[in-house]
Write a structure and sequence with these properties.
Elements: H1 22-25, H2 42-50, H3 59-82, H4 86-90, H5 93-108, H6 114-140, H7 143-165, H8 184-191, H9 198-231
Keywords: Membrane, Transmembrane, Transmembrane helix
Protein name: Zinc ribbon domain-containing protein
Organism: Marinobacterium nitratireducens
């Protein structure tokens, strides 16, 4: 019989695939209400993270932050109004707190050569608080603490400024046992032939510190304002 195997009796037509219609071959259509929402711009996401505050704020913690802000505000203005004065900057206990980070910077950058070894002290001194600032933002999500770290970086820029200004004279007292040859900025500016620009570089360092401190005041103050609004919801 046509279409049937004479030996086994199986109909060939049962083993043929049925033709697929054009509708079945077409890919499944997307749901009518399906849409892909675009991501927010990076600048907006960064701003949101910088201004993030807890949904609920403990009263004691809030007023503790307010007291801390006032203390750093007054302390910061004492550095700003004092100018590039070694007696007021170097006489602060914060100078001695910054010193170990300065010295560690020399060790950290030693593999990069003599120039970076010398520069590494001041470089690490001003960058280390910025690293802590990022850690508070990204890991702890504590933006107010991050604003204090920005203040500290600004203070370190101010702390370095009289050291730069002293480069042509090498008159500042250094760590015990170190002579004039160990003067970081005296060596750096001599190596680059720019000792005559010591005053300019010192002013840039001091000005950068002032700007960072002012930014920290604005940032921290606005964060406290936002926290106070959440405090009223308790």
């Amino acid at each position: 019989m046509a279409g049937i195997c004479p030996q086994c009796g199986i109909a060939y037509s049962k083993w043929k695939k049925s033709p697929v219609s054009a509708q079945e071959r077409s890919p499944p259509s997307e749901p009518e209400n399906f849409s892909i929402e675009p991501l927010e711009p990076l600048s907006k996401r960064v701003l949101y993270r910088l201004l993030e505050v807890p949904d609920t704020v403990d009263s004691m913690a809030f007023w503790g932050r307010v007291a801390l802000f006032i203390a750093f505000f007054i302390w910061g203005w004492s550095f700003i109004l004092g100018g590039i004065d070694w007696r007021s900057i170097g006489g602060s206990f914060l100078h001695n707190a910054n010193l170990p980070f300065h010295e560690f910077g020399h060790v950290l950058f030693r593999p990069l050569g003599r120039f970076m070894t010398i520069l590494g002290g001041s470089l690490f001194q001003v960058m280390m608080p910025l690293g802590l600032m990022l850690a508070f933002i990204l890991q702890r999500r504590d933006t107010f603490a991050a604003s204090i770290m920005l203040w500290w970086s600004g203070q370190n820029f101010i702390d370095v400024s009289p050291y730069i200004a002293d480069a042509p004279y090498r008159a500042l007292p250094l760590i015990m046992g170190m002579g004039e040859d160990a003067h970081d900025w005296g060596n750096l500016l001599a190596m680059t032939g720019s000792l005559h620009r010591a005053g300019l570089y010192a002013g840039l360092s001091f000005g950068t510190g002032v700007v960072l401190m002012l930014l920290s005041f604005c940032w921290g103050g606005y964060l406290l304002y936002r926290q106070h609004r959440n405090l009223n919801r308790l």
